[in-house]
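Hey, quick one: can you model this chain's 3D structure?
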Amino acid sequence: MKSGAWGPSPHGDKMKAMIGRAEILMEVLPYIRAFQGKTLVIKCGGAAMEQADLKESFALDVILLRYVGINPVIVHGGGPQIGALMKRLGKEPRFVGGMRVTDAETMDIVEMVLVGKINKEIVGLINHHGGRAVGLSGKDGNLIRARRLAHRTPEGESVDIGLVGDVEQVNPQAIRLLEENGFIPVIAPVGVGAAGETYNINADLVAGELAAALVAEKLIHLTDVDGIHGEDGTLLSTLTRKEAERLIRAGVIEGGMLPKVESSLKALEGGTAKCHIIDGRIPHAILLEIFTKEGIGTEIVL
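Sure thing. Here's the predicted structure for all 302 residues.
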């Protein structure tokens, strides 16, 4: 084509751009082939649950995974939202060693926020954008059997923090049934005890236990940091279990990162191939981590 009013060969420039897009699609083909039919457990939290643009980006990522034959399972938390509602209702949140003290009244609020509000918001968002999501709590289908968490202070003192649970058993049949029929399970981290009592469970812990029970291909934690940093402050792109345990003992991995790493180690022990801790503030973070060679965060491996 000769140059004219549209500049030199506009058709050729457009064709080059289109070919470039096709090449990008071809780059992800090996990853789609490798993960097709596999389960990915994704724990979402932080900005990815609060900012409208990031929530939409998250939903679209999850839908795309499902469309290309990958089985995403979503686990969500909701600590800040629980605290906000408690204060609105005139109940001051209390914590012991970072754990929310959960009496019967607080448990009602926890279940209201996690199961009745956040879970349905995520389900609605995915469905609105063309996905097929179904919300569950650990009480549905006896998915998460729980027991009361025995909490001890660093000094070794036993402290009663109420209806805070530890995962006793995961019964993944309901999740498998949803996966087989093309649905995306969205799990609220609430479990049920032997006597039918309800327990509030750390969402990171639930994600790790679910990934282990499902023998997931990957466990992905969406956070508000870019990954795990070493002693010198540099981002670690890959971390082995042995190195992670050393950084925990050294106090380098601490605070909110600690349960995410412990969750990842639990998943790896259960047969999960790789775990990832990535920055959910980056649009399409999930796709960038799964479908690129470089990735964007820290992967944890055995």
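One thing worth noting: Confidence is low (pLDDT under 50) at residues 1-7.
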